[in-house]
Amino acid sequence: MIMESPYQGDALSNLTAQARGLVSVIMTGSARAGKEAELRAKADKLTLDLLKRAILFRERNKYEAALDAGCAALEVLHAIDRGEGKRAAQVLSDIGYVRRVLRMFPEADAALTKALELRRKLYAIDHPTVAESLDRLAMLKKDQGEFDQAEVLCMEGLRVRVNVLGEDHPLTGASKHNLAIIRERGAGGV
Questions:
Q1: CATH topology of 37-103 equal to that of 123-190?
Q2: What percent of the chain has pLDDT over 70?
Q3: How confident is the model at residue 5 (pLDDT cuts 50, 70, 90)?
Q4: How many angstroms separate the CA atoms of 14 and 67, rounded?
Q5: HEC string of the chain?
Q6: Which residues have a Cβ under 8 Å from the Cβ of 171 and sit 6 or more positions away?
Q7: Which residue has the higher pLDDT, 18 or 91?
Q8: Domain 123-190, what fold?
Q9: Centroid of chain to Cα 112
Q10: Mean pLDDT rounded to a whole number for the chain
């Protein structure tokens, strides 16, 4: 038996079609009574499958496919919980990151800002995922030439990472590196 590669377009198209069909059922309320739990479990599994594909595509620099998978997952999450949960925050953060790479700056800004808002609402203020959102948004602002705002966001993310993870953690080091880049570029560096 030949296994289908997770990178093939047909596999992603099939998952996306399943997601849209499931969203339609959820949104129209056409599920039979008593099937809500089953529908939610199916939506949860489908969302996880789409997220795994989005991550695989992103790691292999297949950004358009990663964006398609992430957006399909977000559609399902919007149907389930209005896109207000922790998983939606992660998907929005990933979508924002990919859109930044693709230089879709306004769309990236909207996704990353929403992810940060959700994470601040769902997590303690000093939580690593809040720091991730701050860092991603800071780097987007840097790309847009908004160095003062980028520095403020990056410094806040660095503060969270130092408080939660410590000075020597690799993610703290990444925040320090990003802050140095922002400051260099903001000072007229290349």
A1: no
A2: 82
A3: very low
A4: 15
A5: CCCCCCCCHHHHHHHHHHHHHHHHHHHHCCCCCCCHHHHHHHHHHHHHHHHHHHHHHHHCCCHHHHHHHHHHHHHHHHHHHCCCCHHHHHHHHHHHHHHHHCCCHHHHHHHHHHHHHHHHHHCCCCCHHHHHHHHHHHHHHHHCCCHHHHHHHHHHHHHHHHHHHCCCCHHHHHHHHHHHHHHHHHCCCC
A6: 128, 131, 132, 161, 165
A7: 91
A8: 1.25.40
A9: 7
A10: 85
* Predicted local confidence at residue 33, as pLDDT: 55
More confident of the two residues 99 and 21: 99
Q: Report pLDDT digits (tens) over 111-122.
A: 999 999 999 999
**CATH 1.20.58 fits domain 37-103:** yes
The token duo for 102 is 């693709």
Domain locations along the chain: 37-103, 123-190
